[in-house]
Amino acid sequence: MKSALRKVVATSAALSAVLAVTAGCVESGREDAGASGAACPFAVDESVTSTVRLGFQAIPNGDLLVKDRNLLQACLPNATITWSQFASGADVVQAFGAGSLDIGTLGSSPATKALSAPLNLPVQVVWIHDVIGTSESLVVKDSSVTELTGLRGKRVATPFGSTAHYSLLAALDKAGLTDQVELINLQPEAIPGAWQGNQIDAAWVWDPTLSKLTAAGGTVLTSSAETAADGAPTYDVALADRKFLADNAAFAIAWAKVQDYAVAQINDQQAEAAVSIGAQLGIAPDQVIPQLAGYEYLPAAEQAGSRYLGGGFGADLEGTARFLLSQGGIAAVGSEQQYRDGIAVAPAAGASS
User: Fold this and answer.
1) Structural element, H or E, at residue 239
2) Where are the alpha helices (DSSP H) in the chain?
3) pTM to 2 decimals?
């Protein structure tokens, strides 16, 4: 599958177009003029004066709620917060490599690449935004295709280096379709246009693009929930620069606290959470709620425990690295201890205390 990983089919200018690394930088909070911030859910800390560059993606999770409600500015009024939107995890990794990001959202697959050779970036996983399930799925245009073998010779789009790409490769590998499917590297925003233009036959992608494809008549063939059950779990996580964490420990804990609050809102006050998340995604709240069902959102106490950031997540990263090595995605797999060292549990632990 190494050649499949590298194959990019550019059938038109739309397919070969490369989206900008960021879709614009904005200050904290909703971009429309009618936005209003929420009160801080815990004691305001005026002592934190950090200047922070945050990277987010259009993924329905707590990060969007934090951004929309101006929670960081409400809780840390003397901190300077800048948000930048990224199209995919690969772009987030590039930003860390360039030293232009402090904390950023990306999938577990690109996060593993960042921690592995040849990159070996000085970063650590500090949060698990969500456990990916049916929210990332393989959608086909031809409803008569009911098995993966029906994709033989077809054109399948996915953002290269993403968790969706990882799940697609794992599914193709299991189905014995290595090198028998044309893989096309497209960012989520470009996939609907290629779909409508009949330039692709299928796509493995996440919401809100996923919902656009199913609304256009696409049929879900399989999902990341099934690849996880087959031993290839994926997550959306937050990666942070090591030096930034060392120099801004108080900010990191406060950041984790507002993320934990956002998780509670999604799990317990879903209708209200959907308003904020929908505002950031540009869709109605009633369209957000079905998307939330495709993820699992973990509170800080669970994240800090032995199954996740407090222990077992290092093995998940190592397992991801082994698969990426088999596909030519990284140069070498580090030790499990190396991946454990690539995790900082202190923010989640501080948020849960």
Assistant:
1) strand 235-241
2) 2-6, 13-16, 62-68, 71-75, 89-97, 108-115, 163-175, 191-196, 209-215, 224-229, 242-247, 249-268, 270-281, 285-292, 300-303, 313-326, 336-341, 346-352
3) 0.82
Do the Cβ atoms of 89 and 110 come closer than 8 Å? yes
What are the percentages of helix, strand and coil residues in the chain, rounded to 5? 45, 20, 35
Averaged pLDDT score across all residues of the chain = 89
Looking at domain 23-132+235-352, which CATH architecture does it have? 3-Layer(aba) Sandwich (3.40)
Q: Answer for the pair 42, 257: CB distance below 8 angstroms, yes or no.
A: yes
Q: Reply yes or no on whether the pLDDT at 34 is more than 90.
A: no
pLDDT given at position 15 = 34
114-132: per-residue pLDDT in tens?
999 999 999 999 999 999 9
CATH classification (class only), 2-15+134-229: alpha beta
Q: Does this chain's domain 2-15+134-229 share its CATH topology with 23-132+235-352? A: yes
The confidence score (pLDDT) of residue 7 equals 33
Measuring CA to CA, which residue among 237, 244, 195 is closest to residue 104?
237
Cα separation, 352 vs 307, whole angstroms: 15
Q: What are the C-alpha distances in Å from 321 to residues 30, 211, 296, 314, 337?
A: 36, 30, 23, 11, 13
Q: Sketch the domain layout of the chain as residue ranges.
A: 2-15+134-229, 23-132+235-352
Average pLDDT over residues 270-289: 96
